[in-house]
Design a protein that fits this description.
Distance between the termini of chain A: 61 Å
Largest sheet of chain A: none
CATH class of one domain in chain A: Mainly Alpha
CATH topology of one domain in chain A: Tetracycline Repressor, domain 2
Order of helices and strands of chain A: HHHHHHHHH
CATH architecture of one domain in chain A: Orthogonal Bundle
Helix content of chain A: 55-70%
Number of strands of chain A: 0
Largest interface: A-B, 65 and 65 residues
Number of helices of chain A: 9
Radius of gyration of chain A: 20 Å
Oligomer: homodimer
Shape of chain A: globular
Amino acid sequence: MKTVPQPTSHGSPVTEDTRAALMDAAERLFAENGLEGASVREITKTARANLGAVNYHFGTKDGLILAVFSRRLKPINERRVAMLDALEAKAADRPLPLEKVLDAFLRPMIEQQGTGLEDGQAFTRLMSRVFQEPNPQVAQLVCEQFGTIVKRINTALLKAVPTLPPDEVFWRISFLFGSAHHAIDAWSRFDTNPFARIPGAPVPRALDREALLQRLIAYAAAGIRGTST
Amino acid sequence: MKTVPQPTSHGSPVTEDTRAALMDAAERLFAENGLEGASVREITKTARANLGAVNYHFGTKDGLILAVFSRRLKPINERRVAMLDALEAKAADRPLPLEKVLDAFLRPMIEQQGTGLEDGQAFTRLMSRVFQEPNPQVAQLVCEQFGTIVKRINTALLKAVPTLPPDEVFWRISFLFGSAHHAIDAWSRFDTNPFARIPGAPVPRALDREALLQRLIAYAAAGIRGTST
DNA sequence: GTTTGATTAATACAAACGTTTGAAAATTTG
DNA sequence: CAAATTTTCAAACGTTTGTATTAATCAAAC
């Protein structure tokens, strides 16, 4: 029987324990090389840990993968729910301001990147491909985590744009998800983005977090309000 | 020295040759399990070919990967260029109709799925994750293939929406790419889409090709015209 | 100071990976 | 038909993969 250790009972922040070091290394390498492309050997070497450390702390490589995703995804989604809660509480029965709803969805994901760990940046690249991830365990986790959010966004959008046909919302949310994740990915590796270097292609300006957020919100708001076809 | 055979000088369409069978199997398995997740052994078994067939016909697994992408990507992008050419020829000096520009970009990708081979559907799922692909050869191919398109779309959008600041276009194109690929992916596997089954989540309607296309165009057009912030 | 439990470390293992090889089979060419 | 070329095939190669094992090291509790 495998005894899974507690996540450091005292949590000394001075020296990062092996568990966290593994997750940090894994997050970065997963983002760079993909879930299958990053080997346990590479991860443990980067984390300056022993080869067996992954299996000891997370049971299996899949366990590490799930832990990496959970660590970032949970706080993001909790913050989203909290912001939506606050929004709906304040609005009472009046229609929600669409831009605020979009802000509640997008801001936690975008701001998550600056919590001190520079590895946070790597996670957004993971996020943008998380929906296509073949790993069934990851797919289930993502589905669970995002299920709540999708539901909340759905009702919020209906309250924000009452004229929107209910079975249209699914597609608008799909569009929103797609543009958000794609753009954040492009933004997070802006300097190495191949499209940013194509001569004759649109010359982009490096944006700060807030500017990207505002552009995303403006784009999505216009698209969701849409023109009645 | 390796003699790479010609792609079947006569191209008998009756019985599919090994080369094409390999690409079909690979396309499907790449879409299902990822580029690294689909093994040469699995591919050759699915294609009912010998294990060495991939290395004989494509040199290496990477060669097969590139061939799979090229086969679909090239005709799509050629059609896009042709449609944009026709559009600009007809418009002369007048501003291009934005919806038509978006149609020229989106339609070839969406309609490509119905060319008889049901595997065409698998490719769109490949497309949606092609931008995050860690494989450097794939990244370069994608960059080459999309480079032309991005440039063309850029100038077309500027001619369609003259009030748009030039360094905004990059981001709007990013949003467009993101929403398009994400939505097409969600659409192509609509029946197994986890989000379509979440109780309380937006109930989507299965769309036909044209309806999806029109929704995408409407959404992107509204977003790109945007509200001047 | 010894015992106890948690962690690290080095090594081993079987399975799966992409690729190579050389001979058989099939096909095309003269 | 014979010669030449292309394609298939079965077997094996050397790596690399994730995981299991067993002993050594460490920190705290008694």
